[in-house]
C-alpha cells in the first residue's frame, strides 16, 4: 500500500489529539484513505511527556518539518498569525500540501495563501479551523455543491455559548466568565471569545466557502456579549426568544451581510436549544432548504478528527496525481463572485429595544411616534408597573424586520427625549424564516 508522510507542527491540545488519533486508528484511516498515513516528523516548542513519539524525529523548530524532504503534508497546529503564515507559505513554496486548524490565519491571510497554493498546485485544507469536529466546510463545499446558499448562521464559539447558557439562570457576566476560565473553557485573556473575534474568523471562512467570495475578515461587524445583562436575557425569554451569540452571513442584492452579535432566536427553533460549549450552524440552500450541523466546536480529539479528515482528503488527492480538489475554498477561479460586504447600516434585522422611560402619561405615544417616523413597525411591547423604580419604568419593544440605519436614527431621537433616561439597549433578532 502507498504511503503519505505527515509532519506535525505544534503538539498542543489539537496537535496531541491529532497525533493520538492518527496512531490509534492507523489501520482504519489507511483503509479509508487507500494508503498508509504515517507521521514522520514532529516539531513543537514544548515537549509532552504524555505522548509517546517512539522513534519519530522531534525538534523545537517548526521549519525543520517544512525542510524535511520526507514530509509530503505539513500540518500547521501552532496557531497565531505571522509565524504560522511564514510556515505555511514556506511549505507551499516547497511544493508541500498543508492542513491547518488555524482559523485566524485563514481569515486574515487566506487570500494570499490560496493564491500561492494555486500557483504551486498544492492543496491547503482547513476544515478544523471552523467549528472543531463538525464537518461544516465539507458539507457546504461538497454536500451542498448544487445549492445557491442564501444565508448561514451559527453558534461558533463554545465559550460564549456557555456564558449565555449560565446567564439564563440569572448569573452576571463577570461571574460566569470567571467560572469559564476556571473550567478551561476561556483563556486568561478571553477577548477573542467574548467580543466575537474568534466567531468572526470562522464566519469569514464559512461565508467565503458558501458564497464564493474572497475572505474579507476586516469588513466583518463584530459585537461581543460582555454588555449583556441577565435582565435582558430573562425578558427575551418572556417574549418567546433566547439570546445566542451568532455569526450571520446573508446574501443580499448588491453584497453580503457579515456580522457577529448577540441575537434573539425563537425558543422553538433547534438552534435555541444548543447549550453549553457546543456549536451549531444553520445553512440555507435554495434546493435543500435549512440544514443544521451540531456538535463539539473544540477539544483535542474532536478537532483532531477534522484535521485527519483533511489529511485523508489530501492523501487521496496525492494518489489522484494532484487532480483532486481545487486549493481555493472549493471554487475554481471562474466561479469567484465579486460581492462586497455591506456596511452594517444596510443590514436588515428585527430588534429588541429596551428604553428606560419616565413613568408618565404620553411617553409610550412619543416612543411609538418616533419609531413610526423612521418606518419601524412594532411587533410587541412590554411594560410592567411592578418594575417602576425612582419614577422610571423599562419599556421593551420588539420590532419587525427593518434596516439598521433606520434603527440607529430612531435610537438617536429616543435618547434625545427628556422622558428617556440612559442609553437605549438594542439586541438584534432573527426568525430564520
From TrEMBL:
Binding of NADP(+), residues: 9-16
Name this polypeptide is given: Homoserine dehydrogenase
Record's keyword terms, sorted: Amino-acid biosynthesis, Methionine biosynthesis, NADP, Oxidoreductase, Threonine biosynthesis
Pathway in which this enzyme or protein is active: Amino-acid biosynthesis; L-methionine biosynthesis via de novo pathway; L-homoserine from L-aspartate: step 3/3; Amino-acid biosynthesis; L-threonine biosynthesis; L-threonine from L-aspartate: step 3/5
Annotated catalysed reactions: L-homoserine + NAD(+) = L-aspartate 4-semialdehyde + NADH + H(+)
Pfam families (alphabetical): ACT, Homoserine_dh, NAD_binding_3
Protein family: Belongs to the homoserine dehydrogenase family.
Source species of the chain: Marinobacter daqiaonensis
Listed GO biological process terms: methionine biosynthetic process; threonine biosynthetic process
Active-site annotation: 202 (proton donor)
Amino acid at each position: 500500500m502507498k504511503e503519505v508522510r505527515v509532519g506535525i507542527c505544534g503538539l498542543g491540545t489539537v496537535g496531541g489529539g491529532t497525533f493520538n488519533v492518527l496512531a490509534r486508528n492507523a489501520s482504519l484511516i489507511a483503509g479509508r484513505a487507500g494508503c498508509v498515513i504515517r507521521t514522520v516528523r514532529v516539531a513543537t516548542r514544548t515537549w509532552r511527556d504524555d505522548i509517546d513519539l517512539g522513534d519519530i524525529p522531534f525538534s523545537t523548530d517548526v521549519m525543520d518539518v517544512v525542510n524535511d524532504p520526507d514530509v509530503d503534508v505539513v500540518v500547521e497546529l501552532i496557531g497565531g498569525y505571522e509565524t504560522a503564515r511564514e510556515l505555511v507559505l514556506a511549505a507551499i513554496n516547497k511544493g508541500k500540501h498543508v492542513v491547518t486548524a488555524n482559523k485566524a490565519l485563514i481569515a486574515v491571510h487566506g487570500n494570499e495563501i490560496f493564491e500561492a497554493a494555486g500557483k504551486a498546485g498544492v492543496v491547503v485544507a482547513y476544515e478544523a479551523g471552523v467549528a472543531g469536529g463538525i464537518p461544516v466546510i465539507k458539507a457546504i463545499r461538497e454536500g451542498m455543491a448544487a445549492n445557491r446558499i442564501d444565508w448561514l448562521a451559527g453558534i461558533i464559539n463554545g465559550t460564549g455559548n456557555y456564558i449565555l447558557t449560565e446567564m439564563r439562570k440569572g448569573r452576571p457576566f463577570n461571574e460566569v466568565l470567571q467560572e469559564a476560565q476556571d473550567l478551561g473553557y476561556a483563556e486568561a485573556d478571553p477577548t477573542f471569545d467574548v467580543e466575537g473575534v474568534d466567531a468572526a474568523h470562522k464566519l469569514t471562512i464559512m461565508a467565503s466557502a458558501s458564497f464564493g467570495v474572497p475572505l474579507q475578515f476586516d469588513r466583518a461587524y463584530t459585537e461581543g456579549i460582555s454588555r449583556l445583562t441577565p435582565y435582558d436575557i430573562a425578558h427575551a425569554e418572556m417574549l418567546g426568544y433566547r439570546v445566542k451569540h451568532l455569526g450571520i452571513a446573508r446574501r443580499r442584492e448588491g453584497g453580503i451581510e457579515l456580522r457577529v452579535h448577540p441575537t434573539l432566536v425563537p425558543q422553538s427553533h433547534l438552534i435555541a436549544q444548543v447549550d453549553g460549549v457546543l456549536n451549531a450552524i444553520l445553512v440555507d440552500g435554495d434546493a435543500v432548504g435549512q440544514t443544521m450541523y451540531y456538535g463539539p466546536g473544540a477539544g483535542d480529539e474532536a478537532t483532531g478528527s477534522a484535521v485527519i479528515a483533511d489529511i485523508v482528503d489530501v492523501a487521496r488527492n496525492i494518489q489522484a496525481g494532484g487532480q483532486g480538489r481545487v486549493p481555493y475554498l472549493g471554487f475554481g477561479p471562474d466561479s469567484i463572485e465579486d460581492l462586497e460586504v455591506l456596511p452594517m447600516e444596510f443590514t436588515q434585522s428585527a430588534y429588541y429595544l429596551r428604553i428606560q422611560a419616565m413613568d408618565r402619561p404620553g411617553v409610550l405615544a412619543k416612543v411609538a411616534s418616533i419609531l413610526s417616523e423612521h418606518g419601524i413597525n412594532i411587533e410587541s411591547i412590554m411594560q410592567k408597573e411592578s418594575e417602576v423604580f425612582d419614577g422610571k419604568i423599562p419599556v421593551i419593544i420588539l420590532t419587525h424586520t427593518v434596516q439598521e440605519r433606520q434603527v440607529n436614527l430612531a435610537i438617536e431621537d429616543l435618547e434625545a427625549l427628556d422622558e428617556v433616561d440612559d442609553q437605549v439597549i438594542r439586541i438584534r433578532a432573527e426568525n430564520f424564516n
